[in-house]
Amino acid sequence: MNNLIKQLKQQPRQGGVPSNLNTPINNRAADQPVAPIGTAAAAGLSTQITQLAQQLANEMVAQQQQAQLMSRNGRTYTKFDMLNDVISNQTEVVTGGLWSDNVASLTTYFTASSQTTSQRRYYVDVLQDTPTADGAAVQYSLAFGHALGSGSDSQGQLNDSPSRAIYSQYKQLLLTPGDSRFTTAGSGSTDYIYVVNFKRNRLRERLDPGNFELPLVSVNTRAVNATGSVTLGSTVFTLIDDSVLSTGSVGQSGRVYNIVSGSINGGVYNSTAPVYYGLAYPDYGTLILDGKMLDQQLAFKTNVSSSSEGNNHFVLHHSISASAGYTNPVTSDPYGFMARNSEKVTSTHYFVRVKNAEYNFSNNPSYTTGSVGLIAQSTFIGDPKTYITTVGLYNDRQELLAVAKLSKPLLKSFSREALIRVKLDF
Q1: 217 burial class (0-12, 13-18, 19+ CB within 10 angstroms)?
Q2: pLDDT tens-digit readout, 380-403
Q3: Distance, CA of 86 to CA of 76 (rounded, Å)
Q4: 82: pLDDT strictly greater than 70
Q5: Residue 399 carries which DSSP code?
Q6: What gap in Å lies between CA 211 and CA 198, rounded to an integer?
Q7: b/e 233-266 (16+ beta carbons within 10 angstroms → b)
Q8: What proportion of the chain, given as a percentage, has pLDDT over 70?
Q9: Measured at the alpha carbon of residue 346, what is the angle toward residues 102 and 390, in degrees to the nearest 5?
Q10: What is the full DSSP assignment across 125-182?
Q11: pLDDT of amino acid 4
Q12: Nearest alpha carbon to residue 167 among 194, 187, 142, 141
């Protein structure tokens, strides 16, 4: 650049002063033209300047390209182009098995003796393994509710029976203020309900509509207090929601579907005139079963006597757990309580673009040898190679925020480019 400036300074001065410039204007003839000042010479000078400027610009571009190439060869960080390299706020619905270890079908059922007698009067927790086993965890809870408190003993406390408390709790949680009863398409307004309440930590965000199937075995006989004296029949009923037929209704408790007779594989049985068993509240992970329909269709023989300890929720537990002893003719597997959870995940995608001239060297000490840093592998001299195993995402202060691992090392050289997509879920 300095040489070009010197060349411009050394150019001879062009043009001159016309001989008649000193002649007074008043002495000139009116029609005497004034000669232009070095017109041809000025044009030549302009051409030379343009040529030298173009040469200077070309040299500057070449220097910038060389500097850019050198910086890319030794680059440690690459700044994202936020317009082209980053796509944010991408949402998708992810589902998984609801039970422990992401299992979708539950076929083993255990209750815990650690529950106190007082607790068991209100609800019973169901585990997927023996309570003392490693990994045993509560999967769901069962309860029975009666609007007037029947089917449980208040033990002398006025209006304080467990069944009344359960009905009131779920009424306040799920129904619109002012509604005093659960109303189903099966029996209309019902005074007593059975509740299946999935553990919150298993639900993620919600129960996945259309992906639960509750197996129930009919009841032959039962004692007044049903904690263990229940004789079951041989008929297995499976219940699902009607999301394949209807979009459901939307209320303060979110979307609500009907629980009907059917299966995940076969859909709603007799879809033109389904048998309705209750209501499903996916957003709360709760199934409300109409006690009247369970009595009518499965002979649950619900104890609705006043101040009588019926433990009706244990009848529901026996009915569910006994289904695992029967084989589903469609799948040839034992009947299982099938359920999946659902979660809306927001993602940001980062596209890491590695050009051919970038990241072909490594600052790993094993990459070089000797005091002057010679490349250790002789085959890499003139044709360096690296293997990309990890992508780190940094902020503007070069603080590491996230790390993405590749499934296997990715070869990188001057003859290879790479496009790596990093997905961050929130």
Answers
A1: buried
A2: 888 888 999 999 999 989 899 999
A3: 19
A4: yes
A5: -
A6: 14
A7: eeebbbbbbbbebeebeeeebebbbbbbbbbbee
A8: 87
A9: 80
A10: EEESS-TTSTT--EEEEEEEEETT-TTS--TT-TT--HHHHHHHHHHHHHSPTT--SE
A11: 54
A12: 194
Task: Name the phi and psi angles at 281, rounded to 5.
Answer: -115, 85
Pick from 215, 216, 217, 197: which is nearest to 207 by CA? 197
Which token pair is 85? 């390299």
The mean pLDDT value for 36-65 works out to: 77
Taking the CB of residue 113, how many other CB atoms lie within 10 A of it?
9
pLDDT band at 43 (very low <50, low <70, confident <90, very high): confident
Q: How confident is the model at residue 5 (pLDDT cuts 50, 70, 90)?
A: low
Residue 128 has pLDDT above 60, yes or no: yes
Cβ atoms of 324 and 126 within 8 Å: the answer is no
What is the tens place of the pLDDT at every residue in 88-126? 988 888 899 999 999 999 999 999 989 999 999 999 999
Task: Report residue 38: phi and psi, to 5°.
Answer: 55, 50
Q: Where are the beta strands (DSSP E) in 227-327?
A: 230-241, 249-251, 254-263, 267-268, 276-281, 286-290
pTM for the model: 0.70
Helices (H) and strands (E) in the chain, counts: 7, 22
Tokens (6 digits) for 40: 């041809």
Task: List for the chain the helix, strand, coil content (%; round to 5).
Answer: 25, 35, 40
Query: How far, in Å, CA of 247 to CA of 245, rounded?
Result: 7
Per DSSP, 327 falls in state B
CA–CA distance from 384 to each of 30, 167, 367, 369, 420 (Å)?
Answer: 80, 73, 10, 14, 20
Q: What is the largest CA-CA distance in the chain?
A: 140
Grade residue 25 by pLDDT with cuts at 50, 70 and 90: very low
What mean pLDDT comes out for the span 220-242? Answer: 90
175 pLDDT higher than 80: yes
Q: How many residues does the chain have?
A: 426
Please answer whether residues 404 and 393 qualify as being in contact, where contact means their C-beta atoms are separated by less than 8 angstroms: yes
